[in-house]
């Protein structure tokens, strides 16, 4: 799902195209993909989830990507997201993820979040342009169990796109909770997406002030409780 609104003109549109070509290079046999451009309206360029083949990538996917322009007016992302989630095809038993490429300059924020959360689909975001709206895109990805990367105008896109695709393929949505042995004043947010082999770091500040020398009078223990969605 790629943003082709007026705010994407210039460097943001060039980055979006590069990102889409990089995504195409990481698609493999067994994957299915659709392609939707949106602004004030939505246009499904690849209208159904289509199996990946070298012929499809060369004759359909790449030409559609090259044809994209920032000429679709405003940014009605909620309607675009809703119409994309209705696309059928491929193996309907497999989880469907949405990969959104945008600068985040949208106005229907509340409706977009409701649409994403109501469907249960994960949304992965690529933030492009000189100043992508990072907090909004990060929140959308985090709340739906997805992930988000931001690409600066002069950055090589291959590595961040590869990381994001890796998270899409292997990431498992999880519910994490830490049971601390002492009352805590503050703890860091828990990730909602787990990747095999990835280290999860959790920070906390205890209410236990310790003795005169500043050391804790009681040892601090933490127990990680987690559940991964099937």
Explain how this protein is built:
The chain is an alpha/beta fold and 230 residues long. The protein has six helices and eleven strands. A three-stranded mixed beta sheet has the order 1-2-3, sandwiched between helices. A three-stranded parallel beta sheet has the order 4-5-6, with helices on both faces. Strands 9-7-11 form a three-stranded antiparallel beta sheet, with no helix packed on it. The protein is elongated.
Q: How is this structure best summarized?
A:
The protein is of the alpha/beta class and 230 residues long. The protein has helices at residues 11-26, 54-67, 77-85, 109-119, 134-144, 158-170, and strands spanning 2-3, 32-38, 42-51, 97-102, 122-127, 148-150, 172-180, 184-187, 193-194, 204-206, 222-228.
Class by alpha and beta content: alpha/beta
Rg, alpha carbons: 20 Å
Write the H/E string, N to C. EHEEHHEHEHEHEEEEE
Strand order of the largest sheet: 1-2-3
Q: Quick one: how many beta strands?
A: 11
Percent helix, as a range, is: 25-40%
What is the number of helices?
6
Quick one: overall form?
elongated
Distance between the termini: 26 Å
Uncertain stretches: none
Mean pLDDT: 83
Beta-strand portion reads 25-35%
Largest sheet: 3 strands, mixed
């Amino acid at each position: 799902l790629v943003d082709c609104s007026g705010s994407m003109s210039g460097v943001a549109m060039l980055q979006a195209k590069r990102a889409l070509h990089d995504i195409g290079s990481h698609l493999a046999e067994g994957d299915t993909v659709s392609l939707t451009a949106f602004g004030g309206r939505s246009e499904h360029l690849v209208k159904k989830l289509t199996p990946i083949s070298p012929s499809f990538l060369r004759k359909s996917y790449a030409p559609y990507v090259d044809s994209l322009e920032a000429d679709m007016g405003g940014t009605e992302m909620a309607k675009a997201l809703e119409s994309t989630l209705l696309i059928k095809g491929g193996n309907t038993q497999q989880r469907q993820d949405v990969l959104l490429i945008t600068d985040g300059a949208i106005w229907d924020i509340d409706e977009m979040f409701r649409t994403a959360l109501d469907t249960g689909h994960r949304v992965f975001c690529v933030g492009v342009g000189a100043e992508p709206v990072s907090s909004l895109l990060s929140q959308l990805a985090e709340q739906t169990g997805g992930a988000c990367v931001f690409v600066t105008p002069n950055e090589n896109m291959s590595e961040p796109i590869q990381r994001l695709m890796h998270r899409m393929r292997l990431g498992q949505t999880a519910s994490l909770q830490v049971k601390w042995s002492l009352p805590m004043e503050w703890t860091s947010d828990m990730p909602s997406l787990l990747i095999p082999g990835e280290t999860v770091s959790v920070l906390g500040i205890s209410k236990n002030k310790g003795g005169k020398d500043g050391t804790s009078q009681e040892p601090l223990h933490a127990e990680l409780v987690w559940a991964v969605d099937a």
